[in-house]
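Q: Structure tokens for this one, please.
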Amino acid sequence: MLIQVTNQKAIGLLHELEELQLIKVLEEYVASGTTKLSDKYKGIITKEQGQNLNEHIQQIRSEWNTIS
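A: Here is the predicted structure, written as tokens:
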């Protein structure tokens, strides 16, 4: 089972569950923080989805500029 901790308090809860012998933490992973976002998210969406997203962002920006 692979989980992603989104709140640091959850780590303490996981350790408490381990102390109660309800779970066993097999591996702790600490992100180094040196990973570039482009590397982290590379391949998550297709090129076509990326182009559609860029077009949508441009449309939203132009709509926002007409409001201002």
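A few notes: Residues 8-32+40-67 form one domain. The mean pLDDT is 85.
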